[in-house]
Specification:
It holds the Pfam family DUF4194. With 214 residues, the chain is of the alpha+beta class. The chain has 2 domains: 79 residues, no CATH class; 117 residues. Helix content is 43%, strand content 18%. Helix 2 crosses helix 3 and helix 5 crosses helix 6. It starts with a helix and ends in a 10-residue tail after the last strand.
Length: 214
């Protein structure tokens, strides 16, 4: 493993180091992301680097008890292991994550031939309302902050200007939405949110992928 790394050029070594740090930080890499300047999905450089050195990186993470997996169908490379812990998110961000996963799964199960799903903010709030997990519509500021946070973690990509946020604001749901839960029943979890009257300001979501077909 060390011999493989040392035989690479300095540029390639730096690329691998960068990819390792990114995977530790966000647990996944997307093959393609939406580029607003071109208005289309663009291939991600770090994904190509990881794919090129996949076997080396698998051996590297295995030492730490972490599994590196690739789902070529969905365009994902991700790490999985008990040593990986999720971060605490605000309550609205947690609710939106659960709802987005539900919307994603529903559309993927219907007629979608793409691993990238487009929905609207109105649909997200409407679905959350169906489960009675929102006590009224969140403020525009809170919704903008939540969308910006989920964009930061590459869960979604807003297609419209956030300053003009409304129910028609379009959101791309990336396939890494699978990172939000480990096989739990989302509908039951959302119903639990609705039944609880005194939920704290923060809720924990483990950023670990559920089992997906290779």
């Amino acid at each position: 493993m060390i011999d493989y790394f040392e035989q690479l050029s300095q540029e390639e070594q730096e690329d691998i180091t960068e990819v390792i740090q990114i995977l530790y930080r966000q647990t996944f890499l997307l093959e393609r992301k939406y580029d607003k300047r071109s208005g289309r999905m663009q291939y991600v450089r770090e994904y190509r680097i990881c794919s090129k050195h996949l076997e080396f990186l698998r051996a590297y993470y295995k030492v730490a008890g972490i599994t590196l997996k690739e789902n070529a169908h969905m365009g994902l490379i991700y790490i999985q292991g008990e040593a990986l812990w999720g971060e605490k998110l605000p309550r609205l961000a947690t609710i939106y994550l659960l709802v987005l996963k539900l919307i994603y799964d529903e559309q993927m199960a219907s007629v979608s031939s793409s691993s990238y799903i487009v929905t609207t903010l109105g649909a997200v709030n409407g679905k959350a309302g169906d489960f009675r997990v929102l006590h009224g519509l969140p403020s525009p500021t809170e919704m903008r902050r939540t969308i910006a946070l989920l964009k930061k973690y590459q869960i979604i990509e807003p297609l419209d200007v956030l300053e003009e946020l409304n129910e028609h604001t379009r959101l791309i749901i990336y396939p890494c939405i699978h990172a939000v839960l480990m096989g739990d029943d989302i509908k039951e979890l959302l119903e639990t949110f609705g039944e609880e009257e005194n939920i704290g300001d923060e809720a924990a979501i483990q950023s670990t992928f559920e089992d997906m077909p290779e």
